[in-house]
Each structure stands twice: as C-alpha cells, then as structure tokens.
Amino acid sequence: MMKKLTHWMVGLAMVGLALSTYSFLHNRGFVSGSICTINATINCDIVNKGPFSEFFGVPVALIGIIGYLFLLIGSLLKIKTPNDRSLTLFLFGIACAGFGFSLYLTSIEATILHAWCLICVLSQLAMLGFIVLITKLAHEENHFSFLKKFFLP
C-alpha cells in the first residue's frame, strides 16, 4: 500500500510541477495569452499577472515550482528508501506549507480578485491530493500515535 501511495505522490508532484511551470512561463511572458482566460471570472491573466502574482517580489509560480520539486524529489527518494520515516515527516511538512500557501492564494482569488485561474486551481487540487496521501502515509507509519494521548482516554 505504501508503494502505491508514493507512486501517486510522484504523479501529483509532477502534475503540480507542470502546472506551476506553465504558470511561471505565462507570468514571465514566455507564453502569450492564457489557455484558461475565458471571461472576467475565469481569468488566468488577472490572477497570474496581477498584483498578487508575486510574494515578496518572488513570482508565486516560482514558489510553486520549488515546492513541487521538493515534493517530487522527496517522493522519489521515498520510493527508494521506504523505511525512512524522517523523509515522510519532511514531505508532510513541505506539503502542509504548500497547502497553507494554496489556501492563502485561493482566498485572494475568491475575496479580493473575484477571479479564478483554472491552472492555479488545478495546482491547488494537486496539493490537496498530495497532502491527503502524505497524511495517509504518515498515519500508516504511525507518526500520529502521540495524538492518542490527547484525544483518546
């Protein structure tokens, strides 16, 4: 079961990496016109080239590329070293950070920009899928046993 989970994690990291790379190329002008600019609400141009497309001067898509690279490399290493429990915790931490950042970006799309980037939403779904899988893997490796002290009598 763990091997299947890690293979799915590799796949989701590759999808996220591809989507973030496309977003970065679009943001930097290497791709003209977005494939997901449909109307005022579904508009990658507003999201990916607007004032929130950078985080402290760094393109959000580049942050995504770096995050997904960490997840991809870590997942590939997990396939090679399935008993490395610290690698699972590392991946869990990176995935939590990525998921938190995705929630932040999604809230900006919904509440400030009132526009949605389909590429971004797909990337956010890839991150959600990854965090579900890494949480399941961490649970299977019994990383959360300490929680029983707090939640079970």
From TrEMBL:
It is found in: Membrane. InterPro entries: VKOR, VKOR/LTO1, VKOR_sf. Residues 2-138 form the Vitamin K epoxide reductase domain. The chain crosses the membrane at residues 56-77, 89-107, 113-134. The keyword Oxidoreductase applies. One of its GO terms (molecular function) is oxidoreductase activity. It comes from the Bacteria. It is a multi-pass membrane protein. Keywords: Disulfide bond, Membrane, Oxidoreductase, Quinone, Redox-active center, Transmembrane, Transmembrane helix. GO terms for cellular component: membrane. Belongs to the VKOR family. This is Vitamin K epoxide reductase domain-containing protein.
